[in-house]
Amino acid sequence: MLINKGIAFKLVLFFSSCTILIFSVIFLYSYIVSRKTIEKGISENSKNLVMTSINKIEAILAATQKIPENISYFLENSSNTEGEIYQVLYSVVEKNPEIYGAAIAYEPYMFTREKKAFAPYFYKERWGINFKYLEKYYDYFLSDWYQIPKEIGRPEWTEPYFGIGGNVLMCSYSVPFYKKMGDKRIHAGVVVVDISIEKLVEIVSSLKILNTGYGFLISKNGTFVTHPIKEYIMNETIFSIAEATEDRDLREVGRKMIKGGIGFEPFKIKNPVTGALCLMTYVPIVSNGWSLAIVFPQEELMEDITRLNKVIIFLGCLGIALLSVAIVYISRSITRPLRDMAHATERIGSGEFDIELPPIKSNDEVGRLTEAFEIMRKSLKTYITQLKETTAIKERVESELKVAHDIQMSFLPKEFPSYEERDAFDIYATLRPAKEVGGDLYDFFLIDRNRLCIVVGDVSGKGIPAALFMAMTKTLIKSKATLGFSPDKILDKVNNELSSGNSANMFVTLFCGILDLEGGRLEYSIGGHNPPYLIKSDGRIETLSGQVGLVVGIMEDACYGLERVELSPGDTLFLYTDGVNEAMNDKGEMFTLKRLEEELKGLTGKGVKEILSGLEEAVDGFCGEAEQSDDITMMVVRYYGRGESKAKKEEDGEWMTN
Amino acid sequence: MKNGFSCPSCYIFSLIFCLSLFFLAPPVSWAGDVKRASFIPQWSPQAQFAGYYVAYDKGFYKKHGIELNLIEGGPERASAMMLERKEVDFTTIWLSQAIKLRSRGVRLINVGQVIHRSALMLVAKKARGILSPKDINGKKVGLWREEFQLQPLAFFKKYGLKVQVVPQSYSINLFLRDGVDVASAMWYNEYHMILNAGLNPEELTTFFFYDHGLNFPEDGIYTMEKTWREDRELVRSFVKASLEGWLYAINHQEETLKIIMKYMHKANVPANIVHQRWMLARMKDLLIPDEKDGSFPFILNRNDFSRVCGILKESNLVKNLPDYNDFYINVMKHVDK
Asked: Is B272 touching A (CB cutoff 8 A)?
């Protein structure tokens, strides 16, 4: 994917990614540090804030606690009459505005032996101070305010409750007192005072933190004494809320709170009001075991930092955008000449060598590249020009060669005896030149009515010289043959003529034979040529034996021997040049005489044309795609002998033009 | 000053002052095809009575031809006494209390045992060293009054424990402040309050009487013999509709909670949905539905009945034990002889 993108794209991608990474790391670090700093600040401030409130609350509670404690001390250490008790209770309620009511409740029969229960109670009413005996209203022995201090043997604040009327939140502080009975100090009763805790609620409610932050107070049981959600007050505990919201963290915090822990819970607790994460600080109220907590809304606390971060992110994005633009600009200025170069190269590639390359403006890599390109362009131009000239020459030569080939091929006999004429013999030959103009030759012609001359040769070298030499040889042989010479003499003469003035040292291998159509005798002479095969009518294949003379044209006065062989009707001669047996395939292997003989064996009995086409196929099949390295010439002559159709032949007259 | 409760969660002490005088129900009366009847659960509205409130709210009683007057219960109204005085036709009572009443000559009969498993339990803090029954020996144990003491005392006897009994109010604070080492609790009520006062279950040791061979079936539906004699169809319809209500309540807990909360608000009882959800879930445990089809026939098990009678007798709380067949009538299958 990336491979196909431009340099500008890659640069932007790389630099932007790096910059974003660096920016993110710095941003994250700054965020964490500033958050910690804020948390630390809040932790300090919130503790101070809570402590101030706690101190106010403690002051109220402590002042209240002293009163029943003093009464208890008074009851324990003096014998007191009923009247004195009423006086004390009355004055306590009268003189202490924060105290709503006060009672002294005795254990059964502890006040007098007559009374099982005795609990005088003075309390404030709208019109003044009222009095009643609690024992007349309910079994106070089972009340928390009585039973708990009695059982645990120390003063205790009760859980908050709604006072009579149902609206005012109240709380009682009860102190057990004892009497000495002999050596024993036995529980005699409980002194209790009731206070309205509306003041405490006010103190906590006045804790306003930012917009949505708040303070709340929970009792020792975790019951909400104050909370912005009114339904929570006295009806839910911090644990029931934790259960409802399935907030285990909140439950844990609640447990710490009721156990008197001091805590700072950073952003773990969900605000029950908003559901958002918040930061919570809590401090216990030592006197009654309650706990005061302040909830700081995270969003608001982090507002400044969030705003700052937004600006930083905005600036960061802007910076990265600008950086990208800059990178695009720079990379374009670098890549523009490159792109121009690429364009110019494309045009050069399509042959426009004269176009101007982009001007060299700088000495940098691009400049040097342009220079190098300019040199290359000029060299290419020169080279192409030269190449064009050479090609033109070559083309001319080739066309001349083509003409030469045509001429050469026209030398070769092209007309073979027709079917009807094939009574005494049949002949067929092919020449496949390796190059346009080859050096092989073949020829056949009737010297007179009864003698057929057959020639196959191979001139050394290729091309025009070989063709000329071949033409010369062919003409010479024909002229000598028509003069009636025997094959050996023909070769002697042709050799002498060719040898004299053969400055090019060219030569030709030749087979020359004269077949007596009447009797079937073949006289032949070989000058350095492959001896032909004789395929007997019965299928035997044999090589024409005899002396093989020197190649023709190289040495004057060389002698060539005359050989004879008697052909029977149906015998076939196969003549060829070394292009056949030396034909190579692409592995460099040769066709070889062995293969040739095998192929011939397979073709005995076939017509002359079939034999040649069969052999051609075999050679082509063997060579495959390999280029033909030498001319391939093959000739097949089949002798029938002069039979009944001799007369017909005579009537038809000459059938060979050559 | 205090009217006897100081724990805000103990709303069972929060009373209903209004209405009480207006609902002294007339005895069974006729209004065309629809029969009039009245019912009072033994306590103020809560999930403990989910089945009846659901049946009432969803019109199951109407469907069975009863125009029901559902009277809010509460500590102010002793449901058993109202039944005895024929101020209501039906009420729910604990089995042990009902047997006591019957032996005293109150001609009430059980027409459907609803709660089969005792929810009464003892609970202690592990931190106070109580891990097994023997650890209770010599400790202060908070006990409620009367029939709430039968199982604990039998329990102490069974394990040979000597304990210091402290009368316990309906507040859990005495226990929370360590005024007692062991407290009485109802599984569906006080136990959850203790959890919601910040104690974790793993910090508590629980003693379910059910697990200690002291199972007492609790809430059952009761009516007077006379009512049954006069109108069997009415009793049958009431029990059927209540059963349907319970089935519905157990299978539609969230909907049931909404209904319960509605009646709690109406009764002006502090309503805490978390607590009611817990209570309703426990009710399912206590009804002991059939494992196969989830049904829970309101049948009083003879063995349970005998166990309760035995312990009542041992405790010298009853003199003349009622006969099972007189006391309990399977209204669905009953055939007159």
From this structure: yes
